Amino acid sequence: MIIDNALWLNLAVALGIGLLIGAERERSKGTGPDRSSAGIRTFTITSLLGAVSTAFNFWLLVVSIICVMIFAAIAYYNRRGKDPGLTTEITLIFTVILGGLAMSAAALAAALAVSVAILLAAKEPIHGFVLGVVTKDELNDFLILAAATLIILPLVPNKSIGPFEAINPRNLWLIVILVMTISALGHLALRWLGGRIGLPLVGLVSGFISSIATIGAMGERAKEVPTLMGSAVAGALLSSLATILQLTMLLVAIHPPTLYALMWPLIFGGVSVAIYGLVVTLNSFHKNGSEMSKPTQTFSVKTALILAAVIAVVLLTSAALKAWFGQAGLVVASGVAGLADVHASTISVASLAAADKLSPESAVIPILVAFSINSISKAVMAVISGGKDFARQVIPGLIVQVSATWAGWWLF
């Protein structure tokens, strides 16, 4: 066998893998008669064993792995009453495999070794987070999100179906995943930042879940505690800023050219409500903030599915009206859907543009109409939840935002 520079480099990577993982295990093995059986020397030799075995013959690597598995099993059996964990034994076997992998894919083996070392070193933070921070319901919700992303999504067909070929099942399921993910991020932000940081920041974060619902919650709080009126108004208005940010995220994921066509309206609308909300926030800083009750669910699968169903209906309706009445029909459909949720209209119109059934420029007006009509729903919610005093301060901010959005379209 000819030994060249590449082989020496691969052997050096295998040596580094063993030293890296072994160094972490050496610090965790303990001392005295109860210490673990494998430390830095054992892991380094094991990694080199995998590398040398691979260099000679693949089946020699298989034999080496089997032998290490036997030794690891014996070591575990001898100390099973003292430490029931299998981490060191499993890591030892994996180190043999990484040493062998270093001979053909050194970069991948090194990256995996670093990941393993980080995972081993972060034992206490990981255990503390899982056992002390994450609740059982949150863990179940994240497992549902993982299943929806990693199991269901690959099985969903990726083709247009139905009347007018307006519905792509994969895109609809991506919307379900996106809604649940955004809601989960909002939930985490509320948990970690929700203390006594004031209603404005909580309103901004909650706006990613639902701006209309956030305005309703802020209005109720303002009605209960009139001294928090300024903070509640700021939170309600900043939730509308979250709507702009969320629309931007949706358009980035679905059809960036439509986002480019809407760039100036979104910038004008976002900056205007941000300035308005900032002024209200600064005026409310002298008052004591109060915590909002934290959400009981990380996300609502039902809400995500309903939104996807609404989007499917809007897609069908929009495609039908577009086919029957042209651009005017699409504007009417988007406006009606915007009463309930601006995201559904935005996603449906952007999906039509992504399917080349609508130009990005033609998608601007339907989305702006849906956004404007959705602000009417927000204004109604402000009146119902917070009364006249609350609505008198929130509605002007909504008017400023909608006016600035249309000004951005008119100017550019």
Topology (SSEs and partners):
Layout: H1 5-28, H2 40-56, H3 58-78, H4 87-101, H5 106-121, H6 123-133, H7 136-152, H8 169-193, H9 199-206, H10 211-224, H11 229-254, H12 256-261, H13 263-284, H14 301-325, H15 327-338, H16 342-354, H17 364-411
Helix pairs in contact: 1-2, 1-4, 1-5, 2-3, 2-4, 3-4, 4-5, 7-8, 8-9, 8-14, 9-11, 10-11, 10-17, 11-13, 11-16, 11-17, 13-17, 14-15, 14-16, 15-16, 15-17, 16-17
Structure description:
There is one protein chain. The protein is mainly alpha-helical and 412 residues long. The protein folds into two domains: 5-129, no CATH class; 134-411, no CATH class. Helix content is 78%, strand content 0%. It has 17 helices and no strands. It has helices spanning 5-28, 40-56, 58-78, 87-101, 106-121, 123-133, 136-152, 169-193, 199-206, 211-224, 229-254, 256-261, 263-284, 301-325, 327-338, 342-354, 364-411. α1 runs antiparallel to α2 (40-56). The longest helix is centred in the C-terminal third of the chain and has 48 residues, at 364-411. The termini are far apart. The model is unreliable at 288-296 (pLDDT under 50).
